[in-house]
Amino acid sequence: MDRTYPVESLTDLGSQALQAVDVPVDEARLTAEALVEADRRGIASHGLLRLPLYVAAIRAGGIRPRPELRWIRTQGATAVLDADSGLGQVAMAAATDRVADLAAEHGAGVVAVQHSTHYGAGAYWTDRLAARGMIGVVTSTTGPSVTPFGGVEKILGTNPLTLAAPSSDGAALTADMATSAGAYGKVVAARNEGREIPAGWAVDATGRPTTDAESALAGALLPFGGPKGSAIAVLLEAFSASLTTANYAFQTEDIWANNASQMNTGHLVLALDTAAFTSREHTEHRVAELQQRIRGAAAPGQQAFAPGDLEHANTGRNRETVPLASSTVGQLEDLLGSLGLPDDLIPDPAD
User: Fold this and answer.
1) How is domain 68-180+223-318 classified at the CATH fold level?
2) What is the per-residue burial (b if ≥16 Cβ within 10 Å, else e) of 318-347?
3) How are strands ordered across the β-sheet holding 202-203?
4) What is the 3-state secondary structure (H, E, C) of 23-44?
5) pLDDT (tens digit, 9 = 90+) per residue, 228-250?
6) In degrees, to the nearest 5, what angle opens at C-alpha 261 toward C-alphas 41 and 47?
């Protein structure tokens, strides 16, 4: 059963856990805020569930706590960032700031990132771009977990895709999704909580469909949308890795499997400055018009949602407190013990 905990206390817990393994204060706070924000959105697969993994990877050498980020190439509206195997959140903070500056100067900006790691929920980064009046696109490689349509071998990652447009409605129009039928973190969460996963998400090691989370992790996830979704996942793999020296998923050993693996994850971040086209106000009002029309398309007695509406509603509902699964709380308790941190960093439930 999920119980709710204060947002600020959970953010402090995450920050102190990362500082305990030598992550600088500002970077630890940024990463903790991004994880807790995912929980607030209702995306527990990318929230504090990931914190023990990050800490284990830092301790084992898979993630460097104090990376030396380097801009290794700049040309016009483009740039390439080497993240030195640091936390993906640290790399993406630099990448989104740079791409927004490039877009403000040139009308559009593109940043490719190599030698990075998992960056959390993509909407956290496109929100930063939307707040500056930018249309944002973010994608990434991951560890191998997905087989292409018709396959059984893990060739692709979950290859997340996040798209966002700023809106005068108050919340960006946002789609944040894995290109697998289900997110890898959701399968991990299902295994941890003893739940089955939906049919159509995965095959076992022999290629047979399965709803058992453990068998899915031993087998492979499936792309969404059959051959069409598989094609999109393949192209996102190419976009995220081929512009740099980043690894493809099939070249990667995931830190879930080996905490010492330096995954060399690749990200691609694109931004369009709406002011370079008509005006920021024009685009934001046009996007809001579309959102409102989508919501108004519901059948009688039903409700229609524009992309991002449910996550924005969760964020508003979880403004002060956030629900955590008991399995995640147990893992956080174990983590604090392993770091020699006081267990009272886990606050009393608010409910």
Assistant:
1) Ribosomal Protein S8; Chain: A, domain 1 (3.30.1370)
2) beebbbbbeebbebbeebbeebebeeebbe
3) 209-210, 202-203, 220-221
4) CCHHHHHHHHHHHHHHHHHCCH
5) 999 999 999 999 999 999 999 99
6) 10
Residue of 249, 263, 250 lying closest to 87 (CA atoms): 263
- Under a CB-based contact definition with an 8 Å cutoff, are residues 62 and 86 in contact? no
Q: Give the residue numbers annotated as catalytic, written as ranges.
A: 118
**What is the CATH number assigned to the segment(s) 1-60+320-351?**
1.10.1530.10
Write out the residue limits of the CATH 3.30.1370.60 domain(s) in the chain.
68-180+223-318
CA 97 centroid distance within chain: 17
Q: What is the pLDDT of residue 1?
A: 61
pLDDT tens for each residue of 7-42:
999 999 999 999 999 999 999 999 999 999 999 999
Per-residue pLDDT tens over the stretch 292-318 = 999 999 999 999 999 999 999 999 999
Q: What angle do CA 7, 10, 13 make, to 5 degrees?
A: 155
Tokens for 167, please give them: 């809106």
Contact 113, 269 (CB under 8 A): yes
Q: Do 37 and 74 contact (CB within 8 A), yes or no?
A: no
Whose tokens are 């740099």? That residue is: 244
Distance CA 115, CA 86 (A): 8
Strand partners, 203: 209, 220
